Amino acid sequence: MLRRLRTPMRALLSMVILLLLAGQGSSRLHAQATSSYAAAYVCALCDFGGTATNGRWPKEPGLLAKGADGLIYGTTPSGGANRDSGTLFRVSPKTGALEILHSFALDERGSNPLGGLVAAKDGSFRGTTYTGGLYRITDAGRMRLGTGTVFSYRPGDKEPQILHTFRNGDLTGVAPKLCPPKRGCQHTPQQRLNALAAYPLSSPVLASNGVFYGVASLTGNLKYGALYKVESSDSDFGITTLCINGPVPTEPDLTDAQLRERCLFNVTNGNIPMSLSADPAGDLYGVTLGSGHPLNPHGTVFRASLSGAVTTIYRFDGKTGSRPYSVIVGSDGNLYGTAMLDGTQPSGAKGNGVVFKMTRAGILTPLHTFSGGADGGQPISGLLESTDSKGLVYYYGATRYGGEGRGVLYRVSPTGDFKVLHRHPNWYSATGRTPSGTMIEIDGVFYGSTYQGGMHDGGLIYRLSGVDLPDVAKPPFTPSFTTGKLEASASVPWPGQTQPITIDVFSGVVASPGKFPELLNDGLKIRVSNCRNPHVLQFVYREKIGVDGVAFGGGIKTNNGEMYEFTSDPNNPKWHTDGGGGRPNPFYDQGNVYRIVNPFGLTMFDQPNFAGEIFGPGAHETWRATFKSYVMCNCQVVREIRWAREVAWIVDPPASLAVPPDLNKGKQGPPRYMGWRNSTSDPVTKISIDAPSDPDLSWANAQVAADGYEPLPIITTR
Question: 38 Cβ partners below 8 Å, 6+ apart?
Fold first, then answer.
């Protein structure tokens, strides 16, 4: 009889060994400075670990699934109400509201679900736990601890339904069905195979025949692994383990070793199977983390028929990558996947993981080899295929290291066009650390998980949009600003934060004396602190007013190429996104302006735009710009700053008509800062920081769209 792993401590130790094996080589990874940063919008949808019963540390493969109700469902392998045994959760993609639906325990439902969830056609989900579960060993009902489970969960149920408990080779309590004449009864090879499987790392996938198929990463305490389908072959098992080399043997005297070699993953065809992907045309594809060849144990890619026959189609050799974690079938019929380690960079240097394309015949093309620096390292997540608005196909994934030290989100085209979408900063609380789970897409927005980070360092679910935005250039140097005169201040308590968000507005500010032109003074400074993933979204309308107080219409083009459209009637202002000056998106803090931005705060400087020689001799007029500046923290509007600026222009006739007026020598009055004038009859007010008039960004996004920008992300108030 094959040995069985009885204790949860040894089960967890086995999991740790696997994860340590997967993490080899991380010492080569490093952060790397870049001259630009990705402009995609990233915010934390929800944080794990906030309460004693909350989930923690979502980990690969960790699949998220969209429910029929539009909510996101998933699992965490840790946290929960029962001694860190994991949770099943759902979260709203609109509000970020997190609900723990079930806390796993070391009982009949299993514990430590690593694989996440896969949706079934009937609205339910399938998943696995890596350890736990109970199976009967006597007719009296005595139970023994299992080595993982397969479960089903339907939204609205109190708890998952257990479909199968893995036994790790233990056949105690299973009635033998092979009873030849004049010999004692014994278990059939199929019964023995069903009992062998143990410790599933991934969840089963839905195949083209409507049946779920999965892999168990270990068998009988050995690094073999098994392929199974979630169909009961008798009352003791909820799965049928398939023989990867053909039909299940029927010889009654087949030894355990012979059965393993004939029917399970092994050192020749790859061991520790990680995950499966279903081909709509019929077959299954998957990867093994190890082996593939006794002298070259870097992992394999395999194809499996629905009857269970497995063909190894590629063996990694280190130069093309090592330790594959996943593979999917692309819409073009090719396979796309990631190998977590090694590969060869274009320079010939050793890489830190590969994202690849492969034909079904096993011809591999590296699409990108990671360096471990700014482009990321160790691509541990699976890939998600998505088609953009132009009909272009990209594959989205994540690395757990590199970038700014804590991983990157990226996309790559089938031809190898690679782009970093986000670099997770070395701040625990901002957008998380160590992204690991495979993304899902809902209504053109991407969602994924990080293993660490967040407000409680328990990981989080992030939201990613704006993936087509070009990178933003970093300022050539870090500016500095004088303090100036405090015009307005606000302190805003915010859910989940121990410290309030603070907003201060100063006038009369001088920016970096000696580094900027002399004209960059007497500006306005907005400083925001304790603001997660901060941005300022700014709108403006402009007036040109004559000495008689009458506003002109029309517009004018300034030195920096912006077109000023003047409002002639302040009762009907012509608002525009204040997104000029080279900004690739409407956020005022993400372009060619003077700013200091970090993951939890920003300081930005705004000063009058100086027009060229546009005034005729004797011109006396005032330019007024009226602003509303949305302060956004983690994709939510916190406050709205209402302010205006007036500049008087006085151009006296020159002594000689041949001498043009010099606007930069005493012909411009100092700026005057004030609050809003909603109409000509309103009094001038002070700069104010108010509750947002547009908390769901409905007006703002309509204006942004009219000005040619794509919609902005928003998490509605919870």
Answer: 419, 420, 421, 422, 423, 469, 471, 472
Q: Give the number of C-alpha atoms closer than 13 A to the C-alpha of residue 647, restricted to the C-beta side.
A: 19
Q: Contact 204/276 with Cβ under 8 angstroms?
A: yes
Q: Residue 497 and residue 126: Cα distance in Å, rounded?
A: 35
Element (H, E) at 366: strand 364-369
pLDDT digits (tens, 9 = 90+) for 240-291: 999 999 999 988 889 988 999 999 998 888 889 999 999 999 999 999 998 7
The C-alpha atoms of residue 370 and residue 533 are separated, in whole angstroms, by 26
Domain boundaries defined on the chain: 1-26+168-315, 59-165, 475-706
Identify whether the C-beta of residue 445 lies closer than 8 Å to the C-beta of residue 40.
no
- From CA 205, how far away is CA 286, in angstroms rounded? 11
Helix (H) or strand (E) holding 448, with range, is strand 445-452
DSSP states of 616-652 as a string? PTT-EEEEEEEEEEEEEETTEEEEEEEEEEEEEEE-P
Cα–Cα distance measured from residue 154 to residue 78, given in angstroms and rounded to the nearest whole number: 21
Give me the residue label for tokens 């023995």: 192
Q: What are 432-489's pLDDT values in tens digits?
A: 999 989 999 999 999 999 999 999 999 999 999 999 988 887 777 778 888 999 999 9
Q: Rounded to whole angstroms, what are the CA distances from 718 to 93, 96, 158, 594, 637? A: 11, 7, 24, 33, 12
The closest alpha carbon to 124, from 165, 91, 157, belongs to 157
**31 CB neighbour count, 10 Å cutoff:** 17
Q: Between residues 107 and 682, which one has the greater pLDDT?
A: 107
User: Distance between CA atoms of 674 and 646, rounded to whole angstroms?
Assistant: 8
Only one residue has tokens 């108010």, namely 690
As a whole number of Å, the CA-based R_g of the chain is 31
State the pLDDT confidence band at 710, using cuts at 50, 70 and 90.
confident
Beta carbons of 462 and 455 less than 8 angstroms apart? no
* Residue whose C-alpha is closest to residue 407's, from 383, 419, 425: 425
Q: In the numeric block, which tokens belong to residue 134?
A: 């109970």
CA separation for the pair 334, 327 (Å, rounded) = 10
Helix, coil or strand: residue 485:
strand
C-beta separation of 151 from 128 below 8 A: yes
Q: Which residue has the tokens 């009982």?
A: 107
Question: Which residues, in sequence order, are bridge partners of residue 464?
Answer: 42, 446
| Residue 54 token pair | 């909350």
CA distance to 208, 288, 305, 308, 334, per residue, from 281 (Å) = 7, 22, 11, 16, 12
- Per DSSP, 27 falls in state G
Determine whether 393 is exposed, middle or buried from the number of CB atoms within 10 Å of its CB (0-12, 13-18, 19+): middle
Q: What is the DSSP string of 180-211?
A: -TTS--B--HHHHHHHHEE---S--EE-TTS-
Q: Considering the entire predicted model, what is its pTM?
A: 0.90
Query: Considering only CA atoms, which of 192, 191, 125 is closest in space to residue 161?
Result: 125
342 and 350 in contact (C-beta within 8 Å)? yes
Q: How far apart are CA 75 and CA 11, in angstroms?
A: 19
Total number of residues shown for the chain: 718
Beta pairing partners, 75: 88
Distance between CA atoms of residues 451 and 438, nearest Å: 12
**Which pLDDT tens digit goes with each residue over 609-660?**
554 445 555 567 888 889 999 999 999 999 999 999 988 876 665 554 454 4
Contact 617, 651 (CB under 8 A): yes
